[in-house]
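Researcher: Can you fold this with magnesium ion in place?
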Amino acid sequence: MKTIDQIAAELQGYDPQALSAYRVNEFLARLVEPVPQSESVSVMDALGRVLAEDVVSPISVPPHDNSAMDGFAFDSRQMPPGKALTLRVVGTAFAGKAWQGTVGSGECLKIMTGAIMPPALDTVVPLEFVQHKDDAIALPPDVVQPGDNRRLLGEDLMAGQPALSKGQRLGPAALGLIASLGIPAVNVCRRVRVAYFSTGDEILSLGDESREGAVFDSNRYTVFGLLSRMGVEVIDMGVIGDDPVLLEAAFRDAASKADAIITSGGVSMGEADHTKAMMKKVGDVAFWRIAMRPGRPMAVGRIEQGEKSAVLFGLPGNPVAVMVTFLAFVRPALHRLMGCSGSESVLLKAHCAEPLRKKPGRTEYQRGIVFRSADGNLQVRTTGNQGSGVLSSMVQANGLIVLHHEQGNVAVGDLVDVMMFEGAL
Ligand code: AMP
Ligand code: MG
C-alpha cells in the first residue's frame, strides 16, 4: 500500500491547495485497492455483486442448431434462384425433443421455434410465406436466403469461452446468462463495509431536543441512501461531537470494522474543531482544497487500527457538497474497492435551456432537471438556487450538470454533460 506522500509524488502538478476534480479521481484510483476476498453465492444472491473471476461457459448456447421461427426446414441447395419450389412435408419437429427421421431430396420438415434442426437442413421458411396443401408446401421464389431463420450452435456463447469477466457488476441480464449456462453459483468479491458518521457540535440526531444554532443531521441519511444504492454493507455510527476522545474512539472503531470510513463536516480551512487533528493523529491523511463547486474541502487517506486500515473520505459538511463529492469521488472509489473494473459514471448530453456562468479553472456541478422539449430533444435547466446547503434542490433535480474544469460560460442551446441520478440516488 502506498502512503499519501508516495501517491502525491507520483502525480504531476499535485497541489493539495488547488486540486482539479480529475486529479482527485486519479489520486483515489491509486489509494484504493480492490478487496482481496471472495465468496461463492447462488445466482439469485448475486444481483449487484461483482464477479471475482471470469465465468467460463461450460456449454454452448444454444447447444444445437435450431429454428428461429415456426415454419418448414429444408436444404437450401435445392432452392432454384428466382423459381418457386414444391416440397413434401415428411414430419413435424417440436421444441424440446429431437425429431427422428431423415429428410430427403424434395422434402422438408415442419419445425417449431427452438426445435433442433436436423443436420442436413440449413434454412427455415416461416409458415406465413408458404402455401401448405395436403402434405406439400409451395415456396414462392426469393422469400428466404440460404441459412435464414436458423440459430447456430454456440451463437450466443461457445463452450470454453469467457461468458462474463472478472470485475463485472452483475445485473439482471448477467443473472439470466449465468443461469442459461446451468451454473448455480458464482464467486463474487466480498461485500464492502462502509462506516459513516457526522461530526459537529451543532448537529442534532433525530429525537434530540432542538436548540438555537443547531441543525438536524441530514448527511447521515443521504450518505446512508447513497451507500445502500451501491449495495455495500453500511455501519451507521451516528453523530460525533467535537470532542477529541469521542472522535478518536469513533475513528479507531470504524477502522477496525470497515473497509472505508465516510465522515461529514469539520474539514474546512477555518475549522477550529478537533476533527482534522484527530484524522492526522490516527491516520495518514491529506487535506485538500478542490477546484470545484460545491465541495472544496475534503480529507482523504487511511485510518489505521492495529493490523487493519480503512480508506477515509472526510467530506465537507454542507449537505449538497456531501452528495456531490460522494457522486464525483467516493462512488467511483468505492466501486474500485468493491472490485468493479469500470467505475466511470455515464454522462448524458443535453442542450442547456438557460445561460450558465462558469469560470474556467474549476469543475462545477449544478443541480439540473433534464426534460424532453417539444421538438423531442433532451434539454436541461437548473433548479435555480445553487447554494450548497439547499438540499431541497437535490430533491427537485434528476441529475448534476457537470461543467468541466476548463469549460467557460454556457449559452442557451449549448450541449452540456449531465450525470443522471437514476441508479445512484
Ligand atoms: P463544516 O464543514 O463542518 O464547516 O459544515 C458546513 C456547514 O454544513 C455548516 O453550516 C454545518 O452546520 C452544516 N453541516 C455539517 N454537518 C451537517 C450534517 N450532518 N447535517 C446537516 N448539516 C450539516
Ligand atoms: Mg463544522
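Model: Folded with magnesium ion in place. Residues 319-337 form the longest helix (19 residues).
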